Amino acid sequence: MSFYEVYLQYRDFNLDAAFTKVIPHLIQSALEKNNPGINDFIALISPQAEEFLEDIAFKANELTKHSFGKTVQLYTPLYLSNYCDNSCVYCGFNLHNKIQRRRLTLDEVEREAKIIYSSGLKHILILTGESRKESPVDYIEDCVEVLKKYFISISIEVYPLTEEEYCRLINSGVDGLVIYQEVYDKALYAKLHLSGPKKDYRYRLDAPERGAKSGMRNISLGVLLGLGEWRKEIFSLFLHAKYLQERFPEVDIGIAVPRLQPQFGGFNPLNPVSDQNIAQIISVFRILFPRAAITLSTRENPSFREDLIPLGVSRISAGSSTVVGGRTLGEIDKASQFQIQDHRNVDQIKEMLKEKGYQPVFKDWLPI
Amino acid sequence: MDDFLEIAGKKIKNRLFIGTGKFSSYKVMQEALEAASCQVATVALRRVDSDSKTENILDFIPKNCQIMINTSGARTAEEAVRIARLAKAVGAGNWIKIEVIRDNKYLLPDNLETLKTVEILAKNDFVVFPYMSPDLSIARKMVDVGASAVMPLGSPIGSNRGIKTLELVEIMINEIKIPVIVDAGLGSPSQACECMELGCAAVLVNTAIAVSSDPASMAEAFSKAVAAGRLAYLSGIPQSGKIASASSPLTGFLREK
User: For residue range A315-331, what is the model confidence (pLDDT) as tens digits?
Assistant: First the structure.
């Protein structure tokens, strides 16, 4: 069994036809259920449900308070390497882009770690481009060895690995896996991923499940909004999260819906997604997955990020840089994976949260 | 009247235990603990941060309040034991609320792993409070292996639905000779009061206090409701309406002759 079978089962499911059957009563009843299911998800994500967005947001806010109280967890991304063998048309690290390529030495990793550590952060997300030659698992493992002296929780957002490789990284101190399918529509996926190992749709699709089998504690799924038709993509993401939650109840499932921003190479979103759409998506995921971590990155601007917290966001990044060595070696033009919209440092994010009545949580884990 | 809950030599007057997660700040949490005159507070070790750069939750627990570390994050007995030992090592004491959860959808406890944890920790000088689904057989085994109290859930964590497990908890109260403390799901002071009227030794509340718009006042309200429920229980609550008197007595024939 793999999620791919579920994907195939629903590939020809006519979501638009299902939407035509959604009447206000179904939306209201979905909001009243303790354990909503797939039909409730369809009702709540439907175009008609936009008229009930305030009610949906209210319910999402209640559930967020129940699960997370008045707290928001903080983390920051650390880019280790931007070498990449893939040609993904939307990404700044695309191998055809003429950007300066870098891979941090272990000394540089330690320097970055010290700077991040001095801001108080204890949760870190490390990222690499997809290059088994330039950033092999051995290298990631070495970086983790350095970072675990400073951080309580280390998550990886790297290319898909084998089960054995995930086990190795878990043993060296990794507890979280972030891997976004980007786009679930398989035909579109093929058009957007022109060359490189990422072309293998199925291998990426099964990566979260391999991570779960290896014992990864937190697994975050996501789609890159702006690529496929968003309602269909979000439906697939829902099916994927539900599949993993049922099969691996011990894993903390996380959700993220990064929205495509301009980056070097000038790719424009194929299917633009509005702020209102994102508010609906986050609220509906909160209702269907009351305890899942929902992450919001600095791809979104400061005020929009703040507005989304009450709807279900439980984890935000702070003091971000999407450049390799961005905190110590200086930013280099055009070398970022995407443009950051929220440049606030950790102290500024901390103050913002306090002002809004939220406790910024720096530590919410212990290596056991 | 002196009415104490006595556990491991400690006399506890206030039977409202408070969980310390989910507050908007440690200061607000501290005010709530103080407003309720709380004597037992649970703290997740995963949130304890002894690093000087950020605030340490333990510094905000009132001095007269017993800290009970919970093993949140543990998925197995082995992990829960490790967390308990770490707690002792950092000076957080030996009162441990055992929370072993392998279900992240509902956050329901794994009773079997919890039982194993109780057995190991109770032998090693810990005062253990297993958080569990209300199951009489397992609760009896928890007693046998050294639990200081059992903590059945009222309804899922954070759900604010009250004591949905009433029948099962009532059976536990009747049959289990150690304190039964309802933990999780209590959403209002009246629900906490209901548990105490039933005969619970204490209740543990977190979410309903932490997310209210005035946590200190809500903590005080819970504390008063718990005291009222306890007093009512001790005073003997008259049965009401459960036994109707038949217009023609069913045993009248015994007196006819």
Answer: 999 988 888 888 888 65
Q: Can you give the residue range of the structural domain that contains B86?
A: 5-235
Residue segments in chain B with a per-residue pLDDT below the cut of 50: none
Backbone φ and ψ of B254, nearest 5°: -70, -20
Quick one: pLDDT at residue A24?
95
Query: How many domains are there within chain B?
Result: 1
User: Hey, are the CB atoms on B79 and A249 less than 8 Å from each other?
Assistant: no
Is there a contact between A366 and B86 if contact means CB atoms under 8 Å apart?
yes
In chain B, positions 52-111, which contact chain A (CB-CB < 8 Å)? 53-54, 73-75, 79, 82-83, 86, 102-105, 107
Chain B CB contacts of A212 below 8 Å = none
Kindly state whether A74 is in contact with chain B, defined as any CB-CB distance less than 8 angstroms: no
Q: Any idea which residue has 């909001």 for tokens?
A: A31
B254 part of a folded domain: no
B28 falls within a domain: yes
- Percent of all residues in chain A with a pLDDT value above 90, rounded to a whole number: 82
For position A98, what pLDDT does the model report?
Answer: 85
How do the domains of chain A map onto residue ranges?
3-15+59-361
A211-228 pLDDT tens trace: 999 999 999 999 999 999
Measured in angstroms, the CA of B57 and the nearest CA of chain A are apart by 11
CATH superfamily for domain A3-15+59-361: Aldolase class I (3.20.20.70)
Residue of A nearest to B87 (CA): A366
- Domain with residue B11: its CATH number is 3.20.20.70
pLDDT digits (tens, 9 = 90+) for B44-100: 999 998 776 778 899 999 999 999 999 999 999 999 999 999 999 888 889 999 999
Nearest Cα residue in chain B from A250: B102
| CB < 8 Å & 24+ apart, contacts of A196-200 | A196/A84, A196/A85, A196/A86, A196/A87, A196/A88, A196/A95, A196/A130, A197/A85, A197/A86, A197/A130, A197/A132, A197/A159, A198/A86, A198/A88, A198/A130, A198/A159, A199/A86
Across chain A, mean pLDDT equals: 93
CB contact residues (below 8 A), chain B span 174-233, against chain A: 207, 210-211
